[in-house]
Every structure is written in C-alpha cells, then in structure tokens.
Design brief:
Number of helices: 11
Strand content: 15-25%
Number of strands: 10
Mean pLDDT: 95
Strand order of the largest sheet: 3-4-5-6-7-8-9-10
Helix content: 40-55%
Order of helices and strands: EEEHEHEHEHEHEHHEHHEHH
Radius of gyration: 18 Å
Distance between the termini: 39 Å
Number of domains: 1
CATH class: Alpha Beta
CATH superfamily: NADP-dependent oxidoreductase domain
Amino acid sequence: MKNKGQMKFDSIPSLTLPKIGFGTWKIGGGSSADPTTDSASMTALLSALEVGYTHFDTAEMYANGHAEELLGQAVRKSKVKRDALFITSKVTPSHLQFDNVLRSCENSLRRLQMDYLDLYLIHWPSAGMDLEDTFRALNKLVRVEKVKHLGVSNFNLKLLKESQKLSETPIVTNQVPYSLSDRSYVKNGMREYCQKNDIFFTAYSPVDEGNLLSNKKLEEIAKAHHANIYQITLAWVISQACVITIPMSANPIHIRENFEAAEIELTADEIDQLTNER
C-alpha cells in the first residue's frame, strides 16, 4: 500500500479544514435509496477512509438518507475514530421550519449513529422560507452541542449576509458549484466576499461530475506534472485562498487520485493560464 499523501489544509479563525474532502452525492443511490449500489458505495467510502480523507460531506437528501446510513456504517467498519473526522450534513429545503430542522438533524444523527455533526448546512434556500425561524433552530442545535458549526449552500450574497446576522456563531461556509468551466459564483462576487470575510468557499462539482471539457493548455500542464486533467483542475481550485472542495468518485483509483491532487504545486504562471483559459 502506497503511503498516504500529504493533504493541504486551509484555515479561517474558527476552523481548519482539509483542502480536499469527500462528497457523498450518489452514494447509496440518487434522490432515492438504491440498495443495489450498497456494495460499490461501501467500497468507495472505505477506500476514502483508508486513503486518508477526513472531511465527509453528506445530506439527508442524498439517497433519501441512505447515504448517511452507509457513511456511518463505513466509519464504524473502518475503526477510524469519530473525533478524527469532520462530518458535514445538510437540511433539505422542505424542512426549513423550527421543529423540522431539529427533527432533520436528529434523523441525520440517528442514521449516521453519531452524537454530533461538525457542520450543518441549509442545503438550498427555499422560496418563502422563514430564515429567522430556521436559524432559531440551527442556533439551538449549536447550543445543545448537536452541531459544532453552521453554514449554507447555494446561497446568494443577500441571503448569506442575512444568515450571518441571524447566526449566533460564525457562518463557516457557503457550498456552491465551482470549477474551471463554472465560475458563476466568482462573477457574482461570492468567492471574493467569502475570502474577505473568513468564510470557506466550498466548491462542489469541481470536475463537472466527470464531464470536464479538456483543452490543450490543461493537457500540457497535466503532462508537466505527470498528472491527469482532473487532478490539475482540483489543484487549480484549491490553489485559491479560503477555497476547499469535495469531489466525489465511486472508483477507488479516482478517489486516491483526487486525494493526491492536493500534492500538486501549480506555478503562478500555470494558475494564470488556467484561470484565463476560456
């Protein structure tokens, strides 16, 4: 077994996280549970734990809760200590009411068979949601130590700023789509705002779910680093301050390659070339 690679970390005042974590969308199924994928899902999770991932990102919406169940099973099977891991989950948009937020968190903990979440996110904003009521519940979860940190996902700047006012503890992340080919959250000012306000900008779909469009420059840089284009894309994403990412793969080889992308040191010129390649 090859030695575990060196993971890079990033910090804000209230938290330090690995630059690359493991996303669990499609673990255990899609929007509903698919037990026929359990074996492959468990192999993926155990591979990630063995390789050395410590940040695992899940949600009650993923496989209708089954992703959380499998993640909990994999952690127990791996014998990795709970306090060595950072577990993120998310409350679904239809549950953004005080009692439902509390119930959602309890259900996530029950499925994971864990006592607390390191980070709990609002998965998506919901039209007509009462954000104040939602944060009343989220703040309570932190006070009773069911949740350590709070964050949001897919929020625009207005909603993020509103969340900061309502949260009794620092909002530590906004989780949004971000990749070489999707920079919408740079154009709308979100990345810069997060960087200036000590908020992790967490990139999901960093390789466009495997549909990354290749180009000559990307291939040249990959060749120079004896890496593949997906690893270079991840290295570009995490070269930025306050930016972390949570790629997902069910393939143990890709799981390791994604992890090892943290070791790639792109030059300032390579970063500029990739940033400006459209």
